[in-house]
Amino acid sequence: MSLRVLINGARGRMGLELIGSAPKMGLTVGAAVDVGDDLPAAADRADVIIDFSSHAATRATIAVATAKKKALVIGTTGHSAAEKAELLALAAKVPCVWAGNFSVGVNLLFALTRRAASVLGSDYDAEVIEMHHRFKKDAPSGTAARLLEIILEERKLTAEALRHGREGIVGERTPTEVGVHALRGGDVVGEHTVMFAALGERVELTHKATDRGIFARGALRAAQWVVTQPPGVYDMQDVLGLK
Ligand code: NAD
User: Fold this and answer.
1) Is there a contact between 108 and 224 (Cβ–Cβ < 8 Å)?
2) What's the pLDDT score for residue 34?
3) Which residues does the annotation mark as catalytic?
4) CA nearest ligand 1 atom 15, residue
5) CB-count exposure of residue 156 (10 Å: 0-12, 13-18, 19+)
């Protein structure tokens, strides 16, 4: 019998992509739920719950998965750092893949960013720029947040170093700050650039998504992988064997 998935946030942009891609990858959509639907009842019709809804729904989704002993794939973004830490601990009771971005290309960008941030020292000013469609609700994107985390880890900095945009007489750039800029407009699926700028040269790593099917296929691949794993929280680097 093919793997049965439950799509939470089924009427959204990603939900519709997931419903379209699942059969092509040999998976069955056992249930598709959105605001107001009965998630616990729907969970009985699936082996894996895939959540691309709202950050406000993540806690309840994890509670259903742990109560029903279902594997989880979480793609929803927009959680605060404190909220995410708490939710990660709860999600670890079942096999769970949690990723701010399910594309293979972006996961390679994560690895390249780590390498660049370690080779190019603090003399290379690091800035992250992202652009998404006008309907996106959170900023910066989950992917930008992960890129920033990687740079902070490599440079042994804390979140205090982040500069979310600049305005007014902010003074000269300090060597330890890491800038982040969120552009919004039109139908842009998702673009991220990590820039390392020194005096005399600049390195830019850019990823551009043109079709959100890439995220859906990655999340479904994660669903196929996670059902074979012991409880714990994994990311897309684990699924792709990039660690
Ligand atoms: P969207 O607004 O088009 O869709 C969200 C859907 O979730 C809507 O149909 C909405 O009614 C539903 N929803 C809201 N609250 C709910 C709840 N409590 N229970 C059930 N359903 C609920 O948004 P989208 O563009 O599809 O993105 C959804 C989420 O996925 C966002 O957080 C976005 O940032 C994230 N995302 C992640 C990736 C990734 O690769 N990880 C890629 C794209 C989008």
Assistant:
1) no
2) 98
3) 132, 136
4) 54
5) exposed
**Quick one: which of 24, 21, 20, 73 has its CA closest to 46?**
73
pLDDT in tens, 83-127: 999 999 999 999 999 999 999 999 999 999 999 999 999 999 999
CATH class of segment(s) 104-209: alpha beta
With a cut of 80, say whether residue 243 has pLDDT above it: no
CA of 9 to the centre of ligand 1 (A): 5
Q: Classify 90 as helix, strand or coil.
A: helix
Average pLDDT, the chain: 96
Q: Cβ contacts of residue 142 below 8 Å, gap of 6+?
A: 77, 78, 100, 101
What CA–CA distances, in Å, run from 104 to 36, 91, 148, 241? 33, 23, 18, 11
Mutational test site, ligand 1, from 6, 16, 35, 97, max ligand atoms within 8 Å of CB: 35
Predicted TM-score of the model (pTM): 0.90
Q: For residue 1, what pLDDT is reported?
A: 79
pLDDT at 15 over 90: yes
CATH superfamily label, 4-102+212-239: NAD(P)-binding Rossmann-like Domain (3.40.50.720)
Beta carbons within 10 angstroms of residue 85's beta carbon = 10
Distance CA 148, CA 180 (A): 8
